[in-house]
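Lab manual, section 2.4: Encoding a predicted structure.

Procedure: take the sequence of the chain (165 residues), apply the prediction step described in section 2.3, and record the output as structure tokens. A sample record is shown.
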Amino acid sequence: MPLTPFHLGPASAFGLLFNRFMNLTAFVIASVIVDIEPLVVLLFNLDYPLHGFFHSFLGGGIVAAALSLAVIALSGKIRKWTGFFRIRQNFSKKAVCAASFSGVYLHILFDAPLYADIRPFYPLDFNPFYGIVSRGAVYDACGMLFLAGISLFLFMLFKGKFDAK
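Recorded output:
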């Protein structure tokens, strides 16, 4: 799903559902950051797989570790930026790391059934997930999860689960 908003469906639903245990900001960023790789490939017309090293669990782990360090280092600024939404976020190192790795790996798992060029277990040269579900089923799941995320956000808003201004 290069450069699509589809990953925001799982990010919003799972991020809000597990917000108590994971940092929502890190989870949402982690869910989409891996698609910088296909963006760079497309923008620079590189002779490189659209879904290369960073769409593997090894490469994604490197991205998740770097994202964790960045979110922890910028947590004060992130709190100010996300304060508008009034969502309580856990900025513990454990919560940020859990969110970063979960978000990146969820991205890879949603993409792996769709693209033959993904090698989730790099350096092994195969994708056991390719074709196990249809493209439409993955897109439908992402859309339904986005609706679930919106519903969960509204529920949390009306139940007072967010910080007061």
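Check your result against the sample. The longest helix spans residues 135-158.
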